[in-house]
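Hi P.,

Sorry for the delay on this. The queue was packed all week, but I finally got your sequence through. Input first:
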Amino acid sequence: MGLRSDGVVVGSMEEHEWDLLLGRIQAGRCTPFLGAGACEGLLPSGRQLAEEWARRHNYPLDDCHDLARVAQFLAVTVDSMHPKELLLNEFSKCSGLPDFSAPDEPHGVMARLSLPVYMTTNYDDFMYQALRYYRKEPEREMCRWNSYLQDVRSVFDSPFEATPKSPVVFHLHGHDKHHKAAESLVLTEDDYLDFLSNISKAQGNGVYRMLPPRIREAVAGASLLFVGYRLSDWSFRVLYRGLVTAMEPSLRRINVTVQLPPRLQAGDPSRQKSAMRYLEKYFGKSDVRVYWGTAREFSSELHSRCRKRGIL
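Then the structure:
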């Protein structure tokens, strides 16, 4: 492990864990999950939006950094769709795209891999655009998590088959380019509760029943790679509990989560080490390995290792 100048630990996995992951990627049996950290610096962060909305709308509570709670306040005091329309308006102002050619840009690095399915809880279409940048022919799909989306046509209603040349980007929490964009977003506390409720109502393995068969196969039959999440994120905790821990232990493959480590407390480095040991133990129970660092730091190392192995 290394230490950045800002006091943050950056650490890789063991070599045999990298070998397993790279082998799965080479065999096409890896499914990336992209979270908000993959878009850092490209779109307004959840914290930035929450604090701006809280200031503008006189949010009365102390947790003005929590986007789901501030969005819930707006849904109650204005109407349910108002925070979603605000978010879509903010996204519409961000017309630029990431530099997909950069060796540390998460979407670009993932798009270069020969994989058939990409999962995301982000609302943007950066993963879709990255795949097109690398001359692939992707399709977008989303989770039908509420009744309003049940009649939306699925790409899987046609003979479409997800392949490395024609992959699918599956949005679990909606996306901003859909004609029912606002209705598709999981944003407020009520949205997350409804999402969780619908998972619990689903028969069998919960969230798996909310996914098309091809997506279920990509989740249950591959190593999962979570990039751009924090343990505290609602989106990650739902995914982790609903997908990873629901798997039968005998069928699990190595999974990887890229986590930002706790910052080094001045004069008390033991607190950081204790927190990291706790998180490693927490994830280790479900055969999940932790890479300590940002989405860009992980993407840079993944890119380098893939090139050395001849995957890229």
